[in-house]
Write a structure and sequence with these properties.
The complex is a heterodimer of chains A (113) and B (112).
Chain A (H helix, E strand, L loop, with lengths): L3 E4 L2 E4 L5 E7 L5 E7 L6 E8 L2 E4 L6 E3 L9 E3 L8 E8 L8 E2 L3 E5 L1
Parallel strand pairs in A: 2-11
Antiparallel strand pairs in A: 1-3, 3-8, 4-5, 4-9, 5-6, 7-8, 9-10, 9-11
Chain B lengths: L3 E3 L2 E5 L4 E7 L6 E7 L5 E8 L4 E4 L2 E6 L4 E6 L8 E8 L7 E3 L3 E6 L1
Parallel strand pairs in B: 2-11
Antiparallel strand pairs in B: 1-3, 3-8, 4-5, 4-9, 6-7, 7-8, 9-10, 9-11
The chains are: A mainly beta (113), B mainly beta (112).
Chain lengths: 113, 112
């Protein structure tokens, strides 16, 4: 079955540690995205990638980093520079950047302890 | 700037119709979307409407677009308990390229 998979579903991090969230898709999509979701707020775009080996900052990129070495994979690293990392993180992909329909993963809930 | 607003909560009885409303600010929006998010899950695209359309119907779902007032609504007929979820309105703004702006989401409670 084609789809987009995020792992892990729940993640706990100690303050000061970096942590990497996984996002894999087998939909042959060029474009991939990372969003952050906080209670009572809409989704906010962290980073996006139009194509392999290319990525751009979104609205709230500070404290995050990404890589796009393979078409299928777009991991997000939450660094210790991110002051308020506890949130629900959603990865999405679409055929291309301009495509109307984005497919979302199930999300990773990150909690800093 | 670009903004999408929607009320945070809606409660309906099973079998009634639900109407979730949304307003947006970017008059150059090309597509407007409704996504559904069930607890602990990602977003699922329910439906979308192109900005030159007034209405779109898909089974129990009806989307109405008033472009003049920049108002979008989602009507769910015969609401079921399985419809309980958060519903996100989103617009694809023409300004700044591809960017999709999401509202905060409306939490729909369906009472049996």
């Amino acid at each position: 079955d084609g789809g987009i998979t995020q792992s892990p579903k729940y993640l706990f991090r100690k303050e000061g540690q970096n942590v990497t969230l996984s996002c894999e898709q087998n939909l042959n999509h060029d474009a991939m995205y990372w969003y952050r979701q906080d209670p009572g707020q809409g989704l906010r775009l962290i980073y996006y990638s139009q194509i392999v080996n290319d990525f751009q900052k979104g609205d709230i990129a500070e404290g995050y980093s990404v890589s796009r070495e393979k078409k299928e994979s777009f991991p997000l690293t939450v660094t210790s520079a991110q002051k308020n990392p506890t949130a629900f993180y959603l990865c999405a992909s679409s055929m291309e950047l301009q495509n109307t329909e984005a497919f979302f993963g199930q999300g990773t809930r990150l909690t800093v302890v | 700037g670009e903004d999408v607003e929607q009320s945070l909560f809606l409660s309906v009885r099973e079998g009634d119709s639900s109407v979730i409303n949304c307003t947006y600010t970017d008059s150059s929006s090309t597509y407007l979307y409704w996504y559904k998010q069930e607890p602990g899950a990602g977003l699922q695209l329910l439906t979308y409407i192109f900005s030159n359309m007034d209405m779109k119907q898909d089974q129990r779902l009806t989307v109405l677009l008033n472009k003049k007032d920049k108002h979008l609504s989602l009507r769910i007929a015969d609401t079921q308990t399985g419809d309980s979820a958060i519903y996100f309105c989103a617009e694809r703004a023409n300004t700044g390229g591809f960017k999709t702006i999401f509202g905060a989401g409306t939490r729909l409670f369906v009472k049996a």
